[in-house]
């Protein structure tokens, strides 16, 4: 098991060097962005149930969702084309998920 983890670590580091992306920074950005996105969505759902504007909260949730992918697009070099397609699909899926979560939370609140 230890040998597998060492090989995986070496592979990720080599891949990061090949595309000029720091894997630790990308992973940290991903983790932080998802936690903050969930917090902003909760804040938006709460404000929506109180019938207050939620534009700022949705904008912040969208930006926090996008941060690791934007980092990859800006810093990454020699990325395969499928990475760009994957990122676009992630943005579409993220927008769909945000909408679905908001509708679920607000419908459950009796609205």
Automatic annotation (TrEMBL):
Record key words, sorted: Membrane, Transmembrane, Transmembrane helix
Source taxon at top rank: Bacteria
Transmembrane segments: 24-44, 56-75, 81-98
Name of the protein this chain belongs to: Uncharacterized protein
Organism: Mucilaginibacter pallidiroseus
């Amino acid at each position: 098991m230890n040998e597998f983890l060492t090989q995986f670590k070496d592979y990720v580091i080599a891949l990061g060097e090949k595309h000029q992306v720091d894997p630790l920074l990308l992973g940290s950005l991903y983790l932080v962005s998802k936690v903050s996105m969930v917090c902003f969505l909760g804040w938006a759902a709460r404000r929506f149930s109180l019938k207050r504007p939620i534009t700022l909260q949705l904008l912040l949730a969208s930006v926090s969702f996008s941060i690791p992918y934007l980092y990859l697009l800006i810093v990454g070099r020699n990325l395969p084309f499928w990475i760009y397609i994957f990122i676009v699909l992630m943005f579409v899926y993220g927008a769909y998920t945000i909408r679905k979560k908001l509708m679920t939370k607000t419908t459950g609140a009796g609205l």
